[in-house]
Design brief:
Elements (H helix, E strand, L loop, with lengths): L2 E9 L5 E9 L10 E7 L15 H8 L3 E6 L12 H23 L4 E11 L7 H6 L3 E7 L5 H8 L6 H8 L4 H4 L8 E6 L7 H10 L9 E6 L8 H15 L3
Parallel strand pairs: 3-4, 3-5, 5-6, 6-7, 7-8
Antiparallel strand pairs: 1-2, 2-4
Helix pairs in contact: 2-5
């Protein structure tokens, strides 16, 4: 099935406008009222990589249109274009990023061809870190896929940026927004966690910490933890295949 690509901007209230790509089926027969699922893809941060921006998941989104999915791929702002500084400023920026994600879900749910009760969120790296709060709070979201994200914001910000604040005070202030503190609220809806065994930035034990924090018992099929022979970029064929399979099951695609 062919697909259509739209380059658009959407409003996120006081958090400003968001640049995004919308990828949808291009066949009117496949886009009758509420016939499609909606997927929001949030990309990773790597300024030296050509896909460290909203283009990252374009190919995956295009493939999923054949199964009846409409995808939104927003451009991240924090910390892509705004540097972390201190807990007060960083909390404000993270909350704004969460608001942009929520507004993206509203955009998808408001499209006539999208079933508003069949939404999912996919995020890689910093794109996965603001995802648990809106996924947990929005009953329209059926599943969450997080790829190579750290459990805590301070895991990234303290080693790699100049934070003018005591380390313990910073971690304490940021804790309510940390993914590891919010991911349990996504349950009992399905969660897919994907991590690389050769990731220099994120230790494999961080993946297990997130899984445990999800509240899932060992062997619980609702929370899948997948490890791959991959680095932080997660360019691995099986990771992509597993995401597609997760979304297909969770959203009843195809």
């Amino acid at each position: 099935m062919s697909h259509a690509l739209e380059d658009l901007r959407y409003a996120a209230g006081g958090s400003g406008e968001v640049e995004a790509y919308l990828v949808r089926p291009d066949d009117p027969r496949a886009t009758s009222a509420a016939s499609c699922a909606g997927i929001l893809f949030w990309h990773w941060l790597e300024t030296r990589a050509p896909d460290g921006n909203r283009t990252q998941f374009l190919d995956e989104a295009a493939e999923l249109t054949a199964l009846g999915a409409v995808s939104l791929l927003p451009q991240g702002r924090f910390p892509w274009t705004v540097d972390p500084a201190d807990s007060a400023a960083d909390i404000e920026e993270i909350e704004a990023e969460v608001a942009r994600l929520r507004a993206g879900l509203d955009l998808l749910a408001g499209r006539p061809e999208v079933d508003p009760n069949r939404l999912a969120v996919v995020g890689h790296d910093f794109g996965g870190m603001p995802a648990p709060p809106p996924a947990a709070a929005d009953a329209r979201v059926r599943g969450l896929a997080v790829t190579a994200a750290t459990p805590r914001w301070g895991d990234w910000f303290l080693p790699f940026w100049e934070i003018a604040e005591d380390r313990i005070d910073y971690l304490r202030a940021m804790r309510p927004l940390d993914p590891i503190e919010r991911i349990a609220a996504v349950g009992p809806r399905p969660i897919l966690l994907q991590f690389g065994e050769r990731d220099w930035f994120i230790a494999p034990m961080s993946a297990w910490a997130l899984r445990r924090a999800s509240g899932a018992e060992a062997g619980d099929p609702r929370v899948e933890l997948k490890m791959y022979d991959a680095e932080h970029d997660m360019r691995h064929r099986e990771a992509r295949t597993d995401r597609a399979a997760f979304l297909t099951r969770t959203l009843n695609l195809g």
